[in-house]
Amino acid sequence: MVYFCYIDESGTPEIPGNTSHYVLAGLSIPISYWKKCEKGISTLKQKYNLQESEIHTGWILRKYLEQSRVVGFETMNHAQRRHEVEKIRKVELLKLQKSPNKSHYKQTRKNYRQTEAYIHLTHDERVAFIQDLADLIGSWKFARLFAECINKIHFDPVRAKQTIDEQALEQLVSRFEQYMKIISRSKNDSELFGTLVHDNNETVSKKHTALMKKFHHQGTLWTSIDHIIETPFFVNSELTSLVQIADLCCYSLRRYFENNESDLLNRIQSRFDRKNGKIVGVRHFTDATCQCMFCVS
């Protein structure tokens, strides 16, 4: 039996960066359930006319100002909505091209490019789509979610002797390996293995590949690596639905820590890896005064 652990990140590992938290999350499923997961995701995409679109939760949940400028937007069909929003966006880009502030033009063009797949949906419909996906994840009893969530305010790289993203990967790998050990014993299956599937990023891929080679050779701080094979497989998230689902999990966790938003987190929390009812798969690295659901438990 083989288990895939799909990995993605949310927030920046740099200190201070532009986020207070860095989250690295991994969603593990047995390979035999891969097609079931893909089918469920595909069905929801079809429901919202997003069949060929990447699920990028952060961009989907933004409010698009252009939609509010279209009179009767909610009463239009998808094609009409798309036409009206694209018309407004073209005018805006033409105006910004003439502006001396070229960085504003580039950022606006990027924002439009990242959200163009979703402009036929109202904000409420986009929220409903992500909620439906979160509910789907919550229904996957065969799946387990692992994450390291680091409050950068309380992270000291000198004391830790590693960077934020290095600590996050070591913690995530350790928890996935411990889970595999438990499953292997419970099934009496010594031929049970897992592999990491990561969103492709040239800088991250080199670093994480080197770290995994080190873990295979020396183990992590917490465990030897007996069940995770090879180094991570790096894939294009645009073409891999379950990495996109890991993105949703990352987003849900970071929004909980940074904005106290719990709706999406509550929908997926049943998938957190637990031992004797206690969450062991997700850790919030912060100070001792934190009263979040993870620190309290």
Give structural notes:
The longest helix has 24 residues, at 164-187. β4 (193-199), α9 and β5 form a beta-alpha-beta unit. The chain has 297 residues and is an alpha/beta fold. The mean pLDDT is 95. The chain has a six-stranded mixed sheet with strand order 5-4-1-2-3-8. Strands 6-7 form a two-stranded antiparallel sheet. It has two domains: 2-46 and 133-296, Nucleotidyltransferase, domain 5 (2-Layer Sandwich), CATH 3.30.420.10; 65-118, no CATH class. α1 runs antiparallel to α6 and α4 (78-97) runs antiparallel to α5 (102-115). The chain contains twelve helices and eight strands.
Q: Major β-sheet, in short? A: 6 strands, mixed
β content, as a range? 15-25%
* SSE order, one letter for each helix or strand: EEHHHHHHEHHEHEHHEEEH
Low-confidence spans: none
What structural class do the secondary elements suggest? alpha/beta
CATH class group of the largest domain: Alpha Beta
Bulk shape? globular
Instruction: Say which CATH homologous superfamily of the largest domain is assigned.
Output: Ribonuclease H-like superfamily/Ribonuclease H
- List the strand order in the largest sheet: 5-4-1-2-3-8
CATH topology of the largest domain: the name is Nucleotidyltransferase, domain 5
The average pLDDT is 95
How many β-strand runs? 8
Give the fraction of residues assigned to helices: 40-55%
Determine the N-to-C terminus distance: 32 Å
List the total number of helices.
12
* Computed CA radius of gyration, to the nearest angstrom: 21 Å
What count of domains describes the coordinates?
2
Give the name of the CATH architecture of the largest domain: 2-Layer Sandwich
